[in-house]
Amino acid sequence: MCGIVGYVGFRDAVDVLIEGLRRLEYRGYDSAGVAVRTGDGLRELKRAGKLKALAEALAQSPLSGTVGIGHTRWATHGPPTDENAHPHRSGKLAIVHNGIIENYLELKRALLEKGYTFTSDTDTEVLAHLIAEHYRGDLEAALRAALAEARGAYAVVAMHQDEDVLVAARTVSPLVVGLGEGENFLASDVPALLPYTRRVVFLEDGEMAVVRREGVEVKDLAGNPRPLRVTEVDWSLEQAEKGGFPHYMLKEIMEQPWVLENTLGGRLDEAAGEVRLELPLDPGAFERIHVVAAGTAFYAGWVGKYLIEKLARLPVEAEIASEYRYRDPVVDGKTLFIAVSQSGETIDTLEALREARNRGAATLGVINVKGSSITREADATLYIHAGPEIGVASTKAYLAMLAAMVMLAVWLGRARGTLDPAEARVLLHEMRKLPRLAEAVLSRREAVKRVAAKYHQATDFLFLGRNLHAPTAFEGALKLKEISYIHAEAYPAGEMKHGPIALIDEHLPVVVVSPRGPWYEKTRSNIQEVRARGGRVIAVATDGDEAIREHAEEVLYIPEVHPLLSPILAVIPLQLLAYETAVLLGRDVDQPRNLAKSVTVE
Ligand code: G6P
How far is the CA of 330 from the centre of ligand 1 (A)? Predict the structure, then answer.
């Protein structure tokens, strides 16, 4: 996730760019940079670190012009250095980019053969050279030709020394045009535009914008004109920072399709049936794995245990970090210790990692926040690339962790020869569909709202799920507890008969996670057991499963997907259920009582 800004008009472009970047710093702050068309040709300045470092450098060596682009970075390809900061140049042109060009290695190889030289590790520099390669005096045509060869997610803005124009395009990553008088703007998000205009055009997937002082044209990627759909935004700045959503949590739930793109981007080699993780670990060197984490991250680790055991045939223990440390775990040089953490700072998880490392284990962090303590101390890090998560209750990081766990399981399975390439290809093919399928689940928010309206007065909830969906049930209960303060318990569905069944009466809503898969029939029997005792069942089921309606009062449907991937979709209705319930109860959704986003005390 990065923030991008563009300006063409009559003001000092640097002022507009810096002000815009300041409002987009929530999208990442690993480095920042600007490029401006000056009297002296195209010039750029960029710095690793926060925007402050760039502002200081600009005070020392000012740039002046009325056309420019700017960028604030959340590093994906290559560490946060001056070289890897955007804008990236190729001769007389410069670009800023948010997203991931998946086939950048192939493109880079071809460009190296043509004699281009590279000064950064980024996929963006590849795109800059590719546009330059196609440039024949028309930036718009060159960008179009380059994007026809690029695969992946992008919001990109390009400028050229010889043209008084900004050309932008988007697929997946967001981009908004701001309309002014004698000036026009581009930005990743509305807050950057609010000091100047409230008239905006939200570009859609597969659209380009040609932005000049005197006007803006929107086209598709083939160059056909598209209508200019102008929206008047009427947001407070605080609302705008939440992308127009009332809460960060909802914004983060709704951006999960993009998050999945980002987590998986550039890592799935479907043709070879391989996952490319570039981890400095020897997958053949381990006899056992310990996955350790806290809170939501622990439930992702639990899913990871089942996946790794299934695909890589290695024994895996998943454990809560605060327990692991003090129970004298059996760990040695043949153990791979995996710490799962959004923040990379949770002290229980960090201390557990230190314990395992001191006993000789190899350590791997599955982490969101770049440069955090766990990433510095672990032997290797697999970043989940979920972007900044601000809502205290974790949502998008959970989905990204699950996607990372699937990739790890495939990576280990392939390397250890327990997963054949054909089977891996099927799984990778299905993984590519996940962003689209997640979007489909989110489009059904109204159904969840109705369920929340019906049950939000309940004082207790029970959540049930089997096998891979036991963790889903636990995560659903945790979300509800955290933000609505309703008491919720979760059990593996098969365990219900050994105790919790005594709780069931006509007042108890029971959420049963039962998508199609090898455990479906058994879970359906559990639903019948609940019904027989008067319990009120809310089922999460697969599209087309009409039979489940006979036993459930409410059904929240998710699309069909490979059973090993279904935890990634099945949790989304539960996140929304917790959210809608908390809103109805008037709770402080983003900052629930007593909790902290990152807990650094034992
Ligand atoms: C806190 C948060 C939880 C989070 C847990 C682990 O308890 O309130 O939402 O799941 O820490 O955080 P981590 O940053 O390690 O994933």
Answer: 25
Q: What is the tens place of the pLDDT at every residue in 92-119?
A: 999 999 988 889 999 999 999 999 999 9
Mark 87-103 as b/e (b = at least 16 C-beta within 10 Å): bbbbeebbbbbbbbbbe
Question: Is the distance from the beta carbon of residue 378 to the nearest atom of ligand 1 less than 6 Å?
Answer: no
Q: Is the pLDDT of residue 523 over 90?
A: no
Between strands 215-220 and 225-226, the pairing is antiparallel
Q: What is the DSSP string of 434-452?
A: HHHHHHHHHTTHHHHHHHH
Domains defined for the chain, CATH in brackets: 3-240 (3.60.20.10), 252-432 (3.40.50.10490), 441-584 (3.40.50.10490)
Section 580-595 average pLDDT: 89
Task: State how far the alpha carbon of 524 is from the alpha carbons of 121, 300, 513, in Å.
Answer: 51, 24, 10
Q: Are 580 and 587 in contact (CB under 8 A)?
A: no
Q: From ligand 1's centre to the CA of 341, what distance in Å?
A: 7
Residue 584 CB neighbour total at 10 angstroms: 15
Give the pLDDT band of residue 1 (cuts 50, 70, 90): low
Which two three-digit tokens encode residue 78? 């290559």
Q: How confident is the model at residue 524 (pLDDT cuts 50, 70, 90)?
A: confident
Q: 342 CB under 6 A from ligand 1? A: yes
Look up residue 501 and give its two tokens. 């069944």
Q: pTM for the complete prediction?
A: 0.74
Q: Structure tokens of 454?
A: 């019906």
CB 153 within 8 A of CB 258: yes
Q: Are 72 and 2 in contact (CB under 8 A)?
A: yes
pLDDT in tens, 475-510: 999 999 999 999 999 999 989 889 888 888 889 999
Q: Confirm if 46 and 31 have CB atoms less than 8 A apart.
A: yes
Residue 297 Cβ contacting ligand 1 at under 6 Å = yes
- List the residue whose alpha carbon is closest to atom 4 of ligand 1: 295
Q: pLDDT-based confidence at 597, cuts 50/70/90?
A: low
User: For residue 394, which atom of ligand 1 is closest to its CA?
Assistant: 9
Is the pLDDT confidence value at 345 over 90? Answer: no
Whether 42 lines ligand 1, by a CB cut-off of 6 Å, is no
Residues 6+ apart with CB under 8 A from 563: 468, 515, 516, 517, 518
Question: How far away, in angstroms, is 599 Cα from ligand 1 center?
Answer: 7
Residues identified as active-site: 2, 597
* Dist. CA 411 → ligand 1 center (Å): 26
Query: Which ligand 1 atom minimizes the distance to the CA of 297?
Result: 16
Is 38 a pocket residue for ligand 1 (Cβ < 6 Å)?
no
Distance CA(273)–CA(268), nearest Å, equals: 8
* Beta strand 536-542 pairing with 509-513: parallel
Residues near 139 by Cβ (< 8 Å), separated by ≥ 6?
A: 93, 131, 158, 159, 160, 163, 165, 167
**Cβ–Cβ under 8 Å, residues 365 and 375:** yes
Say how far apart CA 137 and CA 128 lie, in whole Å: 15
H helical segments located in 339-417:
347-358, 373-377, 396-416
